[in-house]
Design goal:
CATH topology: Rossmann fold
Number of domains: 1
Distance between the termini: 13 Å
Radius of gyration: 17 Å
Strand content: 15-25%
Order of helices and strands: EHEHEEHEHEEHEHEHE
Number of helices: 7
Helix content: 25-40%
Enzyme class: hydrolase
Structural class: alpha/beta
Bound molecules: 2-amino-2-deoxy-6-O-phosphono-alpha-D-glucopyranose
Low-confidence stretches: none
Largest sheet: 7 strands, parallel
Shape: globular
Strand order of the largest sheet: 1-10-9-6-2-3-5
Mean pLDDT: 97
Keywords: Carbohydrate metabolism, Hydrolase
EC number: 3.5.99.6
Number of strands: 10
InterPro entries: Glc/Gal-6P_isomerase, Glucosamine6P_isomerase, Glucosamine6P_isomerase_CS, NagB/RpiA_transferase-like
CATH class: Alpha Beta
CATH architecture: 3-Layer(aba) Sandwich
Function: Catalyzes the reversible isomerization-deamination of glucosamine 6-phosphate (GlcN6P) to form fructose 6-phosphate (Fru6P) and ammonium ion.
């Protein structure tokens, strides 16, 4: 794992955004894996500003998001599809038809199979952006998730529901299940960049980097991926 530590969040987001922008410039047809949560928000802002200022071209880029809540239509303001449209896609020149977020409604078994097939048809994911949950989850792969999982339906742990409640009216309105790329889906990507900042993430970062590779710390599997870069601020890196 390569680790880059930044003094402040601003320079961290700038560096992550630049990495994504460089990947698009190097390969206009790049397949990007994208994440939701608060961690990438400012990174996405930087990408939209760059697109406006410098015209970076996303017309041939294809994207796959990690996950979606079960039961939320893409028009629901807390759905990850809505988040991605409003936080990034609408600010770039990417056709929405080339952006993929798992469908949280309908025949979920079919949703999972179709999602994996679409990733394969696109030639796999070139560059995957990840955040990390305080319990070490990546995507919505909670502690205990088998390392050989592909896109599947998962039950969210109470701590994840509580952690995401700030985006909803109450913890009770947070969906209890999600569709998520599996750990094996993530391990198959060519390159991973993981973004984490703030002291709340420090223990998870320590365990991911220095702890044993174990299904009780999902992100620890990344120790076995050959191309991972962590973009951290000093607080998230404090226990390394
Ligand atoms: C959610 C998402 C994850 C994300 C995590 C951390 O659970 N499914 O992909 O990494 O939240 O969120 P935040 O970036 O807001 O700390």
């Amino acid at each position: 794992m390569q680790i880059q530590i930044f003094q402040d969040e601003k320079s961290l987001h700038h560096a992550v955004a630049q990495t994504l922008i460089d990947a698009v410039k190097a390969n206009p047809k790049v397949v990007l894996g994208l994440a939701t949560g608060s961690s990438p928000l400012e990174t996405y802002n930087n990408m939209m500003v760059d697109h406006l200022k410098n015209g970076t071209d996303y017309s041939a880029v294809v994207t796959f998001n990690l996950d979606e809540y079960v039961g939320l239509e893409g028009t629901h303001t807390q759905s990850y599809r809505y988040f991605m449209n409003t936080s990034l896609f609408n600010g770039l020149n990417i056709p929405l038809s080339q952006t993929n977020v798992p469908d949280g409604t309908g025949d979920l078994k079919e949703v999972c199979e179709t999602y994996e097939a679409k990733i394969a048809k696109a030639g796999g994911i070139d560059l995957q952006l990840l955040g990390i949950g305080t319990n070490g989850h990546i995507g919505f792969n909670e502690p205990g998730t088998s390392f050989d999982t592909r896109t599947h339906i998962t039950e969210l742990l109470q701590e994840t529901i509580d952690g995401n409640a700030r985006f909803f009216e109450s913890a009770a309105s947070v969906p209890k299940k999600a569709v998520t790329m599996g750990i094996q889906t993530i391990m198959d990507v060519k390159r991973v960049i993981l973004i984490a900042y703030g002291s709340k993430k420090a223990a998870a970062i320590r365990d991911m980097v220095n702890g044993p590779v174990t299904e009780s710390m999902p992100a620890s599997i990344l120790q076995k991926h050959q191309d991972v870069t962590l973009f951290l601020d000093e607080e998230a890196a404090a226990l390394l």
